[in-house]
Design goal:
CATH architecture of the largest domain: 3-Layer(aba) Sandwich
Bound molecules: S-adenosylmethionine
CATH topology of the largest domain: Rossmann fold
Structural class: alpha/beta
Shape: globular
Length: 327
């Protein structure tokens, strides 16, 4: 990835990404990431923490189509990691082409349960007993390499072992990876939404590439706020891999659109945020069925509360801490 220095008042072209980079102590990485997510959260910001090849840690904060408030970010970093870390913060512009090239270069196939997500270059090497989904790196999220996507795919794989949802909604579909995965296994219509127009186009193209275009309907919408989706009420399964803020805001409408035996898969949550998301969906009468912790991200599976004839809630709970398998 090439990072270009920018002037503070540089004009940001549409689709430009600005990255703030800071070397950080490992112990500070997650607290700072969480503080930045809480304070700046939104669809145009993403935070990543990672170990660099020399064993030190770094945090990167991406701003899509938006100028960062440098002073505010330095202040947030200083509050938790100290002023030395705040001074070491640099801002740069990520060139779009390099972003895609860099993503493509590192993409090896990713397995999650029965699913394997791969690029065109690995088409021939995918085992026949896998559900293969071909996704090219593009300017949409969802190549399968992120812990949130893999968490959702693992949860989906588990659910599909015991249930056959009749109708599925994927909110924040990105590349369409989750919607395509559900459609390929179920061979039933799957609805998907994204509020990013570019992602909608990419998801439609990926559905066609994977032979799932007749089954996957992708609409440009926030959450499920679209007449097309309202007309398809009563979803047996809703997947939403977005951030805590939108997940909480969407809770009431998601629950309202869920069928009596419906389930919800939520991701995009740091472990410390999971209970806040859980509380929002519990208020709508859902209960936790499974919690998957993978690569520092939490995925939750919730279901409508079921009562026995005696009125007792029956909800077996599972907690899975999945290994970080990339292959
Ligand atoms: C983290 S990506 C997830 C992509 C894919 N579903 C996956 O699991 O890899 C989140 C996507 O949700 C979209 N998004 C965020 N908030 C949304 C909302 N309220 N309604 C619809 N889409 C949203 C973003 O544009 C982005 O494409």
């Amino acid at each position: 990835m090439t990072i270009i220095d920018i002037e503070p008042d540089a004009i940001v072209r549409p689709a430009a990404t600005i990255v703030a980079h800071v070397p950080i102590a490992e112990a500070d990485a997650e607290p700072v990431a969480q503080a930045l997510t809480d304070e700046l959260g939104g669809i145009e910001t993403a935070v990543a923490t990672f170990e660099t090849p020399d064993g030190s840690w770094a945090l990167e904060l991406y701003f899509f189509n938006r100028m960062p408030d440098e002073a505010r970010i330095r202040g947030l970093v200083a509050r938790i990691a100290g002023s030395r870390a705040a001074c070491a913060l640099t801002f740069g512009l990520v060139a779009d082409n390099d972003w895609v090239t860099a993503s493509l270069a590192g993409l090896s196939p990713v397995r999650a349960g029965r699913f394997v997500i791969h690029g065109r270059h690995d088409r021939a090497s995918v085992g026949v007993n896998r559900v293969a989904i071909e996704i090219e790196a593009a300017l949409a999220f969802g190549t399968g390499h992120h812990g949130t996507t893999r968490g959702c795919l693992l949860a989906l794989d588990q659910i599909l072992k015991a249930h056959r949802p009749r109708s599925v909604l994927d909110i924040g579909t990105g590349t369409g990876v989750l919607a395509i995965a559900a459609a390929k296994v179920l061979r039933r219509p799957v609805a998907a939404s994204d509020l990013d127009r570019e992602a909608v186009g990419i998801a439609r193209a990926n559905a066609a590439l994977n032979g799932a275009r007749p089954l996957v309907e992708v609409v440009h919408a926030a959450g499920s706020r679209s007449p097309r989706l309202r007309a398809r009420n009563g979803f047996d399964l809703v997947l939403a891999n977005i951030l805590l803020g939108p997940l909480k805001r969407l809770a009431a409408s998601v629950v309202a659109q869920l069928s009596a035996r419906g389930r919800v898969i939520l991701s995009g949550l740091l472990p410390a945020q999971a209970n806040a998301a859980l509380a929002a969906y519990r208020r709508g009468g859902l209960v936790l069925e499974r919690r998957i912790v993978l690569e520092g991200w939490t995925t939750l599976v919730l279901a409508r509360r079921r009562t026995t004839p005696a009125g007792v809630v029956a909800t077996p709970q599972r907690r899975i801490v999945a290994p970080a398998i990339h292959q």
